[in-house]
Write a structure and sequence with these properties.
The chain is mainly alpha-helical. It folds into 2 domains: about 5-145, Arc Repressor Mutant, subunit A, CATH 1.10.10.10; about 150-184, no CATH class. About 65% of the residues lie in helices and about 0% in strands. The protein has helices at about 5-10, 30-45, 50-60, 60-75, 90-110, 120-130, 135-150, 155-165, 175-184; strands at about 80, 85-90. It has a two-stranded antiparallel ribbon. A hairpin with a 7-residue loop joins strand 1 (about 80) and strand 2 (about 85-90). Helix 5 (about 90-110) crosses helix 6 (about 120-130) and helix 7 packs across helix 8. The longest helix has 23 residues, at about 90-110. The protein is elongated, with a radius of gyration of 20 Å.
Length: about 180
């Protein structure tokens, strides 16, 4: 089970936490990152992870799972023995948390700032989380935090952008909008 600090870190990536992405040389393939992320989520839900559940979740064959397990175990990220439960090592857990943080930061940005629907945001986050550099993820999280707190922006700016995306028009004229923001 994740400890309280880690759990908070994952749920609230914008409250003073930094992204701890791995250096490019130590980064895993997108596929292996997906395995770590899946193992982490299954363990969080059921206390243990089994090959069958992982294969089902990722919609891959059991032989693909076995090959991924061997690779992750060789890299010191999981504890693996055939037909036994799978556990994450400390390094594996840290790397899984990093992938999850990147995923959540991207999905949050897509939904809150770009006004993209949940399904598209989830799909986009799954694809981009594996390639986005640390600096971009950090800047996205800072921007979301800023835009939610800034009195010139906040939810009015975000909902205005959402309406603009749907209609192609701003909700109010700029002078009216500025006056409205200044009243707050």
């Amino acid at each position: 089970m994740p400890d309280t600090k880690t759990h908070s870190f994952l749920i609230h990536p914008y409250k003073g936490h930094t992204v701890k992405t791995m250096p490019p040389a130590k980064r895993l393939s997108a596929s292996l990152e997906d395995y770590l992320e899946t193992i982490f989520h299954i363990i969080a839900e059921k206390q243990v992870a089994r090959a069958k559940e992982i294969a089902s979740t990722l919609k891959v064959s059991r032989s693909s799972v076995t090959e991924a397990f061997r690779s992750l175990a060789q890299k010191g990220l999981i504890n693996y023995a055939p037909y036994e439960v799978i556990t994450l090592t400390a390094a594996g857990r840290e790397m899984a948390e990093d992938v999850i943080l990147r995923h959540r930061a991207l999905k949050d940005f897509f939904i809150k700032v770009l006004a993209v629907g949940e399904t598209v945001a989830e799909e986009g986050a799954c694809k981009i989380e594996h390639a986005a550099p640390k600096e971009i993820i950090e800047r996205l999280t800072q921007f979301v935090s800023f835009i939610e707190q800034c009195p010139r922006g906040g939810s009015d700016l975000i909902s205005g952008f959402s309406k603009y995306c749907q209609t192609g028009k701003t909700d109010k004229k700029c002078k009216e909008c500025i006056a409205h923001c200044l009243e707050k």
